[in-house]
Write a structure and sequence with these properties.
Strand 6 and strand 7 form a beta hairpin. The strands form two sheets. The chain has a four-stranded antiparallel beta sheet with strand order 1-2-7-6, with no helix packed on it. A three-stranded antiparallel beta sheet has the order 3-4-5, with no helix packed on it. It is elongated. The longest helix has 22 residues. The chain has one domain: Immunoglobulin-like, CATH 2.60.40.790. The N and C termini lie far apart (89 Å). Helices cover 15% and strands 36% of the residues. By secondary structure, the protein is of the alpha+beta class. About 7% of the residues have low confidence.
Length: 150
C-alpha cells in the first residue's frame, strides 16, 4: 500500500465537496442535509428519559472553543473544527482514518422540546445535550374567551 500526501488528500476532499455541491444543485436537496465538511461523520444517539430528551454526539479530540451548538427554529446545529493532530509536523500519511477539519451536523428536534432550557456537557469525547420535554397542547379542548363590544 502506498502513502498519500497531505496535498493529495486535500485534493480528494476538494473533489468530494464539488461532487456534493453538484448533487445538491441537481437534486434540490436541502443544503443542511449534506455537509460541506471534510466528511467527518458525527454519530448521534437521541433518546428520552421521563420528561427529558438527550442527544449524544461522539466527537473525540476536541477542546473548549473547537465546537459550537445552537438552535434555530426546530433544528439543532453542531458546528466546529476538529484540529489535525499532526499539523505542526510535516508528515506523509500512510493510512488516514481519523479525519480533521470543519464539522457540521443538523438534527431535527422533536416538536415537544423546550429549546430555551438546553444544557450541554462534553466528556470523554462525547457531547451530551439535554432538553426538557414540554407537554404538547395541540388537540386539547380549551375554551376561548370572546370579548363583545357594546
Amino acid at each position: 500500500m502506498g502513502s498519500i500526501s497531505r496535498e493529495s488528500y486535500e485534493r480528494i476532499l476538494l473533489i468530494k465537496r464539488e461532487m456534493e455541491r453538484l448533487i445538491r444543485e441537481f437534486s434540490g436537496l436541502d443544503t443542511d442535509l449534506i455537509s460541506e465538511s471534510n466528511n467527518i461523520h458525527i454519530p448521534v444517539d437521541i433518546y428520552e428519559v421521563k420528561s427529558e430528551v438527550f442527544i449524544q454526539a461522539e466527537i473525540p479530540g476536541l477542546k473548549k472553543g473547537d465546537i459550537k451548538v445552537f438552535v434555530s427554529k426546530n433544528k439543532l446545529f453542531i458546528e466546529g473544527t476538529k484540529p489535525d493532530s499532526a499539523k505542526e509536523e510535516k508528515v506523509n500519511y500512510i493510512w488516514m482514518e481519523r479525519p480533521y477539519g470543519s464539522i457540521k451536523r443538523v438534527i431535527e428536534l422533536p416538536q415537544a422540546c423546550d429549546t430555551k432550557s438546553i444544557t450541554g456537557e462534553y466528556k470523554n469525547g462525547v457531547l451530551t445535550l439535554k432538553l426538557k420535554r414540554i407537554e404538547e397542547r395541540r388537540g386539547e379542548k380549551r375554551e376561548v374567551e370572546i370579548n363583545f363590544e357594546d
